[in-house]
């Protein structure tokens, strides 16, 4: 090694340490330049632009750039020439902002284009040997559950500083898309469903548990991890009322070992370790065997990070064909065989029509949650204040607390409620 280093030095080639030092110096220089134009003032002799420093000066340059060239004074034009680095930085920001805005826009294909694209998707579904479906929040918006990154999404509203309206998720029911997916699985056209959603609507649609991976958990399921294997308790209400990031205890106890029960939700920044309902094994095995992947209503900004779902270790030609249905841009669009810009329910209705499969309606009397749910014990009747899923007419609720302690207060806490609490923080009194 010493001989190689000496030979490199003799040949005038910088060593690894020297190259790293040079790269670090360049990074520091760029940072210094960026900070310099933020702190630089306009100099003497410029009366139309106030002599300011820091971010205020940066804003002054931005205001000048918003004017048409013909509307700028000579002094303003000279100020821009003297601060070309600030101008270039602002132009880069404008380009990035325009690109981001374009990606957030919802685009819908016209009816003729939509039908043509759905016909292509139908042909792919028929020919697929192992079709896997990935779903996101977009398939549940028809059930009045907001998505995250849409124009009215939870994160979009919070980034704008707006409060998020309350929503009783327990009243949501499976959408047309949920029922179509269930039917496609029944017809053996879909082999597995991988969902980012915590709303439990895939389970309630009648999709078998073994064919479902709920990567981020299920709001109706709490578990005892003290039992081996972990013991599940399906409830008739949202169990996440008291839970949040790194705090998963629901306040109830296991009826077998008296261990603390916890929710199954995987928050941003957490790593899911539960075998069920996450079912990572089922998801990775399905992805490994997939020849077609259909993504419905997902921005894919989270799913793209799960390399095992995309077979990225294979050559591009051997990866599954990718079909995307979403109103907004996704980071996988360029890799997709087909991108359909449309609402999930509209697309799935057309797809089922092309496949000549009748779309089943959601029937509450057949909702599996009523047979899967574990009744609360007598001492647990008042352990929650969330609304219960209303049972079908003439069928008794499996929980002794048929009314719960539901109120009209906005939803707080839990996997979805954390967004509400963030958006509703009260300002401190001066």
From TrEMBL:
It catalyses: N(6)-propanoyl-L-lysyl-[protein] + NAD(+) + H2O = 3''-O-propanoyl-ADP-D-ribose + nicotinamide + L-lysyl-[protein]; N(6)-acetyl-L-lysyl-[protein] + NAD(+) + H2O = 2''-O-acetyl-ADP-D-ribose + nicotinamide + L-lysyl-[protein]; N(6)-glutaryl-L-lysyl-[protein] + NAD(+) + H2O = 2''-O-glutaryl-ADP-D-ribose + nicotinamide + L-lysyl-[protein]; N(6)-succinyl-L-lysyl-[protein] + NAD(+) + H2O = 2''-O-succinyl-ADP-D-ribose + nicotinamide + L-lysyl-[protein]. It is an enzyme of class 2 (transferase). GO terms for biological process: DNA repair-dependent chromatin remodeling; epigenetic regulation of gene expression; regulation of mitochondrion organization. Zn(2+) binds at residues 224, 227, 254, 257. One of its GO terms (molecular function) is histone H3K18 deacetylase activity, NAD-dependent. The active site is at 216 (proton acceptor). Its EC number is 2.3.1.286. Its cofactor is Zn(2+). InterPro entries: DHS-like_NAD/FAD-binding_dom, NAD-dep_sirtuin_deacylases, Sirtuin, Ssirtuin_cat_dom. Keywords: Metal-binding, NAD, Phosphoprotein, Transferase, Zinc. Residues 111-358 form the Deacetylase sirtuin-type domain. Residues 421-430 have a biased composition (Basic residues). Residues 383-430 are annotated as: Disordered. The keyword Signal does not apply. GO terms for cellular component: chromatin; nucleus; site of double-strand break. Belongs to the sirtuin family. Class IV subfamily. PANTHER family: NAD-DEPENDENT PROTEIN DEACETYLASE SIRTUIN-7, NAD-DEPENDENT PROTEIN DEACYLASE SIRTUIN-5, MITOCHONDRIAL-RELATED. Interacts with UBTF and the RNA polymerase I complex. Interacts with components of the B-WICH complex, such as MYBBP1A, SMARCA5/SNF2H and BAZ1B/WSTF. Interacts with ELK4, leading to stabilization at target promoters for H3K18Ac deacetylation. Interacts with histone H2A and/or histone H2B. Interacts with DNMT1. Interacts with SIRT1. This is NAD-dependent protein deacetylase sirtuin-7. The gene is Sirt7.
